[in-house]
Every structure is written in structure tokens, then in C-alpha cells.
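Running log. JK asked me to keep both predictions on one page so they can be read side by side. First protein, sequence followed by its C-alpha cells:
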Amino acid sequence: MPVFLINHLIFKNNLFISIIMDRYSSLIESLNLNIDSSFNGDTIQATFHYKSNRGFFHLKGGNFSLLLLKNIHKDFVRIISGQPELDNRLLSKISDFLSNIEKNSDELIKITFYVKDEEFYITDIKSDDYEEKKIDPFEIPYPLTKVEYNLFKEGSEKNLYSKTIFDTFFPDNLTYLTNSIIKNLPDIFNPLFIYSNFKTYSPSLKTIFNRPYFNLNNIEIWSTTLGIDSFYYNLNFAQHLYLKENYRKIKKPDMTLLNLDFNEFLDIVKEIKETTDRFDEVFLLGNELNNFLSLYIMAVEMLNLYLMQYFLDLLIITDNLDLTLKMTYQTRKNSILNDNTLSIYQFFDINAESKTIHLPGAELKEITEHTKHLPKLKKLIHEKKIVNILQQIHHLLDIRDELFINSQKLLQKMKSSIDNLADELIKNMQIKQKEDIYFLELDEIKQIKENNFYGNIAFNLYFRKAQLSRFRIQQTPTEIYEKDIDSVEEISKNIYEKARSSNRFKALTFFYKENLSDVAILNKPSLFHIDDFKNKDALIAQNIPIFSLIMEFCTLHEKTVFTGIKMPDILLKDKKLILKNGEVLIEQ
């Protein structure tokens, strides 16, 4: 029979045993929980996370350890070790039992309980002061359900997606709020392509487990039409693929096919800045947001096309990547990265952190200091052309900086509008804390404001918080076909196991120097983490785009860069490395 004793002491075996602390009395009474501290048999320990990941309940018994995927009642058990004598029906009831406690607890707790006649009796309950721990890749087999793996399989099976384009811009996994905004822009390439009478594949952008991917079929059309094959895309956005190719000749793009008008491009940039200045809560919830964001993306696409044109012109002359980058960045006088202070966000998402970074100064060089490395005849023929090309590139880089600074301003205004909306929902007792709004979609926020939302807000928030936690530990490949999305776990694991068995990794190397010892390994190549690498000899990342801010920083300071290695933060971390020009080796 249940024992309900709150804040009392029982005398047993000459020991005083505290039944429960006052702090949990209201929780126990409100849920009518069974408390029995005198039980001496086998018990189950339950935490409401696994190594700080809140997507699971972790159960440990005498001879087993298992996980329950929260809010799921089919395909929801993951065995860590041993074999529990608990069937799925009982485990489902345990999951509901723990969910009920978690939803009503004001803090993270852990409990010990036993099962009798399918009733649950708590023998201990206390605060869970856990330490943050990292979950190793594939430590949890299939962290998502079969339904979730199939949830994102919806387009043409022939669509091929890549996530590298967004690596320096978006986080690994978007919040539900940002994801909902992105999902409303499925054909972000269309405005530019329609403008130039190009065919496009839909969607241009797809989120898989709230992870942004880009449709590579559109890149193939774009590259083929301009007559430049995959060289520029791979060099800029897929350096692991660039290493696999043998490009014998750099082709110049036929830019006339795009019908681009530079003055129109400047007008678009001006309109973007003016719209950002008037951005507010009304604009966020209005009908102009999608068109504005599409225009912003179109401007970035046009900018990259112009930069590509001039960069390839310069590279054809120099036939040397390092020299081309040095000419581009070390002769630029207006860089925002040279001896400056910037306030930036970690990435473009509603919940992104911001901080002020301090960028050290770098010595600028005259163009002649770089052209002197060219063969005399090439220098004589091309020196004036090089000067003209660099003037064009520097002008475009100034516009790139304007768009970047403006994006930080735009995100700040979006976050401010969202904060105001969160305050309103808290005041109306529709959410409990500001962070809850990140787990709502933009249309849902509109419906809630208009009292036109018929779902269960509390249930949606609880479910999505757990689901996003599980999305974050799901490994995904850099490129994936639509038809393979439901097999992402097996594909990712095969790639990982193959890479882990190697101790030699081919790398695209920039600004190589001998005797490199102090190296930073980056998951997300971003200036936000500049303190992690600005004093290092070298840095390693899977991909660093040619026209990214971090590549400019590395060029200014001639910091050695190794790219093209998949999952370097997983495969190379805490290893003793040997760094050579063109490869990274793990010392055995």
C-alpha cells in the first residue's frame, strides 16, 4: 500500500532515514506519487537526460543501462548495456511516469524507484547536479525514430544536398523558429535564376533534422551553363571534393549568360540596408519578410558570382592559390578585420549568442610586393590588369562587409522583436520562459497572438525540446541524396568508421610553414571563436570558403590552414598530429 510521509523521520535499525526533502513535497502531493524509502530490493535509477542531452530518459538497473526516447511510444528503447527484464509495454508506462514528473518539476532531478504490480514507488528523489559530458559519435544507436528518419524524405529522390555552403553562417541545428522561417524560402535560388532565364530544381534549400542543406543540382546547372565545371564550387564550398579532382585548366565563366546588371545589384544592396533600418515586430509578422529575405539571399548570390569572375581571372594569371589570396587580401586597405573591434553573433539563428571580438593588426603590402613573384614576361603583360582586377575585388569585398555588418544588425532587430513577443506570451501565461519561443514556429506565434492556435502549447514545447536535443547528436553526411535520408545513420557510420581507420588525411593546405606545433581544430570555422585560434600556428577545418571572413583573417596573418578533412573535430581531436604540406597524419 502506498506510503505518504512527507518531511517525517522513520526510526529503523537505529538510523534516522530522511523520507523526502520539503522542497519536493508539493511535487509529490500534486502528482500523488508513491513514496517508499524502506524498500531494500532491486531498484531502477532514472535521470531525465543522458550525458546532459535532454532528449532521453536514462534508466540504470542492476545489470542494464538503457535510454527511452522522450514522448515516443514506438521504436523508443535504446539499449546501452545489458538486457533488462522489462518489456516495451512497461517501459512505455515508465516513460509516461517520468514525463509527468519532468513536466511538473521546477528543476532537474533524479529518482530511484521500483515497480510492483505495475505501480511505481519512489525510494529516493534529489536534485541532479550533473557535469556536462560529450556523447561520442554513434554511442547511441539510432537516436531518432523510424518515423523521424522518414519525416524529411519528401522531394525528388534524385536531389543531392550538401551542408557545406551554410557552415560558416548557420548553426548545426536551427531552432524551430528559425527553421520555420527558412522553410518558407524553399526556392531561394529561383529569383536569380529566373532573372537569368535558368532552369532550377526545387527545393533550393532543405532542412534535415533542422540542419540546413543546399540542393547541389542547382549548382551543377549553374556551373555547366557558365562553362566552369565544378572547380569554383569545390574550391570554395566543398574542399574535400576539390582534393579528389585533377583540374588541369581553370575555365573562365561566361558571365554574359546571367544578364547581371551591377547598378541593379547596388540598388538591391541599398534596399536591403534601408529595409533593415525599418525592421520591427510588425515587419517580422507581416507579409514582406519572405520577399525581403529572398532579396537578401539573391544579393549574396550575385556578390559571389561577381567575386568568382574576378578571382578566377586573377587565379588564371597567377596559377597559384596562395599568391592569389595574398594579392586579394594583403593589399586591401579597408578590411574590417585589420586592427578592429567587432560585435558579432555566433551564427545566424534567433538564439545565437553575441560577443565583441578584437582583431589584431596586420601589415599591408603593395601589389608590387606580390607581382614580383611572377615570371618577368607574365608580370610585364598582366601587371596593369592585376591592378584593375584587385580594385574590382576590393570594391566587392567592401560590399560583402556591408552585407555582413547589416546581417548582424538584422539579427539583432529580429532577436529584439522576438524578445518582445516572448514577453507578451509570458505575460499572457502562454509560455513560461523566454527561451520557449524558440521552439515555436513563426506562424504558430502569429496564431497564438490572434487567439487562433488550437494546439497544446505546453505539449509542443516539451516534445520539441526533447526532439531537438536528439537531432543535435544525429550524425549526417556532408552530402546526401533525397532517397538516402532515411538511411542517414548507416551512411554516416560507414563514413566515420572508414575515416577512423586511417591515420593519414589528404588536405588542401594554404600558407604552409615548417615546424607547426600548436594547432586549432574547428567544428564551425567562424570569427566568433577567434580566441581559440588567433595565437595558434595553424588551424584545421573541413571547409573554409575563399571569400569568408575567416579566410581573409588567415591570409592577413599568413596562418597555415588545412581543409578538406571531414569531421576533423571528431577524428583529430586530442591526437598527436604531424602536419605536412598537403596532408595531416596522426602519430602512431
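And the second, directly underneath as requested:
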Amino acid sequence: MESRRDFIKKASLLTGALGMAGLIPESIQRAMAINPAVGTTYLDAEHVVFLMQENRSFDHAFGTLKGVRGFNDPRAIRLPNNYPVWLQSNKKGETYAPFRLDIKDTKATWMSALPHSWENQVDARNNGDYDGWLEAKRSGNKQYADMPLTMGYYNREDIPFYYALADAFTVCDHNFCSMLTGTSPNRCFFWTGKIREEQNENSMPHVSNGFIDGSERVNWSTFPERLSKHKVDWKIYQNELSVGVGLDGEEDYWLANFTDNDMEFFKQYHVKRHPLHLP
């Protein structure tokens, strides 16, 4: 099978023969001239690690990163008023642009998560107008409810570890959650690629946490099972279970899993075999 690099090189030769080499950006030409170092292709990988974090958008972390479709994106969605999507207005007619949440000189770390469930995500989208963010994403903290926190972002100074990763590895921009809702449905996509047992309109879509959370609520095939079927080893690293296992107070805050691993709720994983749940 022809590799992507081979294809690009052949395409480059063809465009050169046709006198079109000047149409290829210089950065791409340089990349095509580099042969991959031994041991650096995906075929050389011994382990693949998947980590999912949540409640923050791509622009919230990397909107100012050089070279991505962030706040300088010339092809950003246009609102009905012809503003770019990140110029959001509230019901008072006040318009806000993205602003930095200075992690050192403000209380931004303690702003908590803004609303991110099915209802308010759909309201923010507003039937495809994408102009409902300020109203739908108000903080649940009354002290901050009138602040346009949904427009806030971090930069390199605020989250240097994330920017170091972005500098060292490939960043996939134009990145969104799998569906306009909260934790468990999106983690369901992460673990299984879907949120309903059958891919048809009569099969219930699990669009809210409550449809999934709670032991043995769902039972369709998961990616770990498919890996096992093909004799590929896998492991899950996490804190304790989300179902009660005897933790309390700060112990629970630090060590519980907060329903963040949907595998716990799939019937075939038998999570209730934990000693505290056995007869």
C-alpha cells in the first residue's frame, strides 16, 4: 500500500513536470524533502495511549497557538449579523470578544465549569446561528453569572505544559466534542463510537449523563472488546469506581472516578462484582 509521503512526493513530481511546483507552499516542499527517521512511524509504536479531558474547547486552550485555526481563522463561521462566531452578543446587545483568563492574576482557576449539557449546548448553537453562547453559558455561580466567561481563553503563559505538548507533537485543530452535550455521552463516543445501541431513529440516543450513569445501563460493543477480539492487549488506568465503594469526604473527592469512565456502566464489564456490591 502506498504511503501518504510517497503519494505526496509523486504529486510533487507531477506538479513540477506541469510547471506547477510554485503552487506548493514552501513549508510543504521542505516537509516532502525529509525522509522519516528509522523507528518513527506508527508501525514502530509499542503502546498507544488515549486520554480524554473535558469541559474546555479547543480555542479555550489553543486559540492563540500559531498555525492553527484559532482566533485568526480567516474561514470562521459568520453569525447572522455577519460578525465572526467569536464576537458574541447578549440580550442587552452587548458584544464581547475572546479575552485572556490570566491564570496568575485572576481567580480564573476557580471559575468552575460552565453549563455543558444537552439543553444549553443546543441553546448556544441556536438552530445553527451559533449566537447563543453568552446567554446559554452563564456561570451557575451568581457572583459570575453576568460575566462573559464563555469567551475566556488561556495562552502559553497560563498553561505552559499544554503548549509544550503542542510544540512537540501534532495538534489537530478544528476540534470539537462528538456531540452537543456533556460528559458521559461524549465519553460513550470515545469508548464505542456511538451513543445508541442501533444506528436508526428508533434506537434511543443517550444524550444525557442520566441515560448512561449508573452501573449496567448500556450494553453494546466497546472498543476494548474489539481489541480483545483481535488479540490486542489493553489496560484502563483510573481512580476508584463511580459506584459506591466506601469512600467518603475528601477521600472520595481525590480518589473517586466521578462517572468519567463509561466502561463502568456497560453491563458486560460487571462492575458490580466489586466486593461491596456482592451478596
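Observation for JK regarding the second prediction: The longest strand covers residues 88-89.
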